Amino acid sequence: MSKMIRKGDLPQKTCPVCRKPFTWRKKWERDWENVVYCSERCRRSGKTGSADKP
Ligand SMILES: [Zn+2]
């Protein structure tokens, strides 16, 4: 009983900046828990810009 990640069944998260769901990528395999944004661009705007706060 081992957990395997199958193609088409990858974990997903929703980017808080662009509000789009993004899928697990190989480059994140070691850091998936810490991945919040879908891309470097969103990461920057998520840290610097706070346009999405209520
Ligand atoms: Zn994004």
UniProtKB/TrEMBL annotation:
Task: Identify the domain of life.
Answer: Bacteria
Q: Which residues form a coiled coil?
A: none
> One short Pfam family name for this protein?
DUF2256
The protein's matches in InterPro entries, at most eight in alphabetical order, are given as: UCP037205, Znf_NHR/GATA
Q: Which Gene3D superfamilies match?
A: Erythroid Transcription Factor GATA-1, subunit A
The entry's protein name is DUF2256 domain-containing protein
The uppermost taxa in this organism's lineage are:
Bacteria, Pseudomonadati, Pseudomonadota, Alphaproteobacteria, Hyphomicrobiales
